[in-house]
Structures are given as C-alpha cells and as structure tokens.
Amino acid sequence: MSVPSAECLRDTCVRVDAVWTERIRPALLAGKNVMVVSHGNTLRALVKLVDGVSDGDTYHLDLPTAAPVVYPLDASCRPLQTYGTWGESDVPRHGRFLMDDARVAAAQRVMREQVERDVAISTVSSDGGDSIATCPAWVAPSAERTQVQVGGADYVVRSMGDVSYFAAERERIQQEARQELRGLAESKVAGGRSAISAARAAPPNKVRATVIVLRHGYSEYNARNIFTGWADPELSNRGREEARRAGSVLRESGVRRIERVYCSLLKRAIKTAWLALDELEMQWVPISYDWRLNERHYGALQGREKRECGAEFGYCQVAKWRRGTTDEPPPAPSDEPEFADRRYASVPVPTSESLEQCSARMLPFLHDVLLRDVRVAVDARDAQEASSGVRDAAPIFVVASSENLIRAIVGEWEGLNEEKLAAVDVPYATPLVYQLDADLVRPSTDRRCGTHMHMHPHAHAQLCDMRDACDVCDVCVRAPCRASYRLFQVPIRSEWSEAPLGCGWSTLRVESAVLVMPQLATSDLTGAGTLGSGLPFALGRSV
C-alpha cells in the first residue's frame, strides 16, 4: 500500500470503488446488512457511487456528523426508492436519514458556512431537543496560534488552552502505567541485582514472536459474584479503567505494533480489546472474533450467584465444577438466550462444559488460527529482512478472552498438570506475555513461563477480589464460611525473560505475589493448592 501525499475526491472515489467491489457488494449480495463508518469525503465518494451522482453534482453531497443514512437496495444492489434530494439541489437522494429532514437540512446549511466562518456543528443538541447545536469551534480564552512551515508553505495551527476530560484521564492512566512499570523494573531479582542490571545481562534476542493474553476487565457479573460463562454482561466502570490501564501498560512498555487481536464473541472481552487498543493509539488493528475463545459454559450455574450455588449444591461440589478439569456443571435448559442468539447460528452451543472440554474447543483455534497467523507474520518479517537487510521487531498478537479459556491456554503452554492448573488464577485485564521461540509452538523459556506485566500492588488487588469470602469455593468447606483476611508474601524464584518484548524493553517475570488467604472461622478445612510455579500453599496458614 502506498500512502498518498494528497488526494482529490476523484482519487478517493477510486479506492472507495475498490472497497465496494471487493468487500461491500459481495457481502450485500450474500444477504448481509453492512454498516460503513468512515469520514466525510470517503462517504461522499461512496454515496456518489451508490446514488450515481455526476462529478458536477458532488458539490451538493453533505453528510452531517454521526447522522446515519440507510440505503435499502434490491437484489442487484441498486437503490429501491428516492427519499428526497441532497441539500437544496435537485440531486436525488436514495438514502434515508434516521432523523427528520428539517434537522438534516439545517445541519447541511451550517456545514456550508464552515467554509466561511469558524463554527462547530452537532446534530445532537445539548438540551435534548430537535434543533441542531452550533458553537464557535475555538472557545478557550487561552487558545494559541502557532505559525509553522511545511513544504515551503506557511500554516496557522490553533490549539485549545483547556485540556479535555478525556485527555486528562488518559494522562492519569499513563502516569499510573509508568509508575507500575518503574516499580517492576526497580524490583530485585536473583543475586540482589536490580531489574535493569539483569536486563542488560540478558541473553541475546531469541524471540520470534510474542503473544499477549489478556483477560477482560471486571464485569457487572464479577461485581455481583455471579457465574458468567456465555452470559454477556457489560464491563463495569472499574473494568473499563482496567482495560485502559492494560493498553497504557503495553504502550509504556514499548509496544508500537500489533499484528492482530483475537476476541471471543462476548462484549466484556470485545470492549476490553477496544479500550486497550484505544490507549495504544492502535484503533485500526484488525480484530478477529471467534466463538472458540468464549468463556467456559457454566451450564445451569450460569447467571446464578456463587454463594447461592454453594449453599444448594455444596461448596465441595461447586469447587470441583469451578477448579476441576473434568467436572462438568449441570446442563443449561434449552431456552437459554445463547441458543437463539444469531452470533451462534452455526455454532454447536454447549449446554455445559468442563475445563477439559473448553480446552478441547480452544486447541483448534490455537494451532490452526493463532499459530498459523504467527508463522505467516514471522515468514513475512524474515522475507523483508532478507530483501532489505532491516530487521523489524518480532510480531505481536493479542488474545482477549475470559479466565477459564486463558487457564486452558496457560495449561497447554506451560504443561501444567491437573493439580497445578486448579490453582491458576488469571487477574483482570493484566497482560500475560508469552514469547515464542524458533519452533513457534511454545514459549521460548525452558520453564515456559508467561510474564504478567503489572507490579505487585496490582496483582495484590486482583487476588484480593478473586479470593474474597464469597469466592471460597476453591477449597472444600463443609460449613458456611466466615472469613477474615491475612496477607502472605509468597516468594517465587526470580528469573528474567530471555529477550525484550520485541521492542527493546525487557520484562521481569512476576516473582512474588501477595495472596489474600481467607482465615476460615471453621476448623473443618481440607484442601490446599499450588501456584502456577508448583509452590504449594494452604489457606489460612503460612507455607
């Protein structure tokens, strides 16, 4: 693809025609509805094509911002009827605006005035009425003008004096991300060396590709301690902030390019990916959606509060369903919403799944989709290096999904047995980095460990939530649990990853985690577990 230095509308029409011919029209002919979200002149080019507007009449094609236009088309993709004219001309308009014509006409008139005066326009008024909203485009009393020279020509650049709310929030999250990474880099590793010293002593780069696994942010069901599965709750406000922080952490760590993002069909994972990409300033990165990345189906437990299920079925049984590998919850009734959801029209929707079954449907995605795409990207990188002599950073891919699906990936890549896998907890919206070696099958380190890119306070806060009193189903308890909390610092062997994250910034493997252990009010406690590294722990007492 060659980036143009400038375009006239005719140039824009050429590339829009290619998109219409290659992608939009075939989708319409296949019976699909298509939504195009784009920019003023790009949409003018598309409307010109669909409406058959002549070059001389394109002047009248004004599309107000965020004003949907619907084109009903026949089987040959030709407009079915006329809904008016464009602006004050007699050029027929075959698309129907989803707002009244008077408001559209008023917005179009003000759009013409933008050429003559500095005015901003919105089809949504601040008072919620039917009128359009206009205001001066630059209102800050401290707005500045700067004269710059580009290509021998002088330009005046105006800047707002006041920082917007969104800009201020982004700066706050970026500062938090920098602080987390600084704390991670300054922590000590084996031999008492600082992380920075260890990074300089790291072996040469052997990483061929990087896969970042990201659990969704805190959802509304997580906040209410409800079994989620294939249910589709929204992210909570906390979850949205966690997703943005994840993107900011990746950005501050040096991630400058992502090849592709893979998501489940559940909006908590999709919106987490969106928000992370927004913080990365990579909103354009392609996203592939795959039902095989959906959370494990919790069957009849889905949508029910965990404590309620523990009281009904027994905490031991619920613990087996939650943390076991082969234990399958009771099946969901056939009238569950996902059975009628068109997202799953061609999907064998399960009625319930064990972690083993969830892993079985995930593995074809892992090997036939993700690792296939990784190999293609690595081969393209190698070919480019051979032809130009310039070696780009290792390609990076992101998988955004839910806890049990990620536990299945961790179990596959880290070779965990059933006992160790039962103790794996996945923090919300915390990037888990896997670096792949030459065979592009498993992570490159001998211990096959992933790297969590957050310092200990963040991991502590996450584990506090996952080990709260309502979530004590991880152990076998035969009496109602009344829990207080004790903190234990659990040391894990210090180790640096072999290579930077494809961009010159070495990441420190998470070496210790602050676990919140419920101190049970009853002595009827049987059961312990292990961390992902194999280090044993027991609830309510130090190891």
Round the Cα radius of gyration to an integer and report it: 27 Å
The helix tally amounts to 14
CATH class of the largest domain: Alpha Beta
What is the fourth-level CATH superfamily of the largest domain?
A: Phosphoglycerate mutase-like
Mean pLDDT: 75
End-to-end distance: 58 Å
Instruction: Name the helicity range.
Output: 25-40%
In short:
The chain has 543 residues and is an alpha+beta fold. Helix content is 34%, strand content 17%.
List keywords for this structure.
single chain; 543 residues; alpha+beta; Rossmann fold; 2 domains; 6-stranded mixed β-sheet; two-stranded antiparallel ribbon; 14 helices; 22 strands; 34% helix; globular; disordered C terminus
Characterization of this structure:
This protein has 543 residues and is of the alpha+beta class. The protein has 14 helices and 22 strands. The strands form 9 sheets. Strands 11-10-12-9-13-14 form a 6-stranded mixed β-sheet. α1 crosses α2, α4 crosses α7 and α11 crosses α12.
